[in-house]
Amino acid sequence: MAALDEAATALIGDIAEAEADALDPLIDGKAAAKAKDALDGLQFRAKRLATARSALAARVDEIRASEQKAKLDAEREAALAERNALAAVIRDEIPALTRRYAEIVRQLDASDARLSKAGLMFESAEIVARGYEGNGVWADGHGQVTRLRHAKLPLFDKPGFAWLDDGMNGRTIWTALDG
To answer: Is 111 in contact with 125 (CB distance < 8 Å)?
Structure first.
């Protein structure tokens, strides 16, 4: 494009010079006709050059658009491949992880109930494992602890959650995780 622009700039000067020659009243008719023919030739070259520049600019735009489309297509393909791989991991691993988490929460509930009956209600396995105070406050005093049983893990292939916490009653309501 730069070469075309340089050629167009040079032609503008040549056209101005040829026009001055063709219109010069001091030259004879034969020389004026020759200068006019040269002017016509230069003007034609200028139009042809402008047409070539427009066609080249359009082609450059097409190529850039094609390159952008190819990049976008490649990105879409990569994004879909990543999505499909993640979907496979979710499909293959989340149901088992949810079941295992639910098993641990069931065991924790049973252990907490047994400890409570034995008068050890602030000795939960969760308290020991996570290192917070028995009153449900983090050891550094910065906030309440969210108990593992309060997590809401969705069932994988149907509506609902693996379990629901019965709030202040401290009971877990089991849903149709296994059914």
So the answer is: yes
Distance from C-alpha of 48 to C-alpha of 54, rounded to nearest angstrom: 10
Helices (H), the chain: 2-23, 29-117, 125-130
Tokens (6 digits) for 96: 């088992």
Domain boundaries, the chain: 2-174
Condensed to tens digits (0 to 9), the pLDDT of residues 86-140 reads 999 999 999 899 889 888 988 998 999 999 999 987 788 998 998 887 777 777 7
What are the helix (H) ranges across 118-164?
Answer: 125-130
Task: State both tokens at 173.
Answer: 């309501």
The SS3 call for residue 132 is strand
The distance of Cα 19 from the centroid of its chain, to the nearest Å, equals 58
Q: Distance between CA atoms of 170 and 66, rounded to whole angstroms? A: 62
φ, ψ for residue 64, nearest 5 deg: -60, -40
Rounded Cα gap, residues 52 and 44, in angstroms: 12
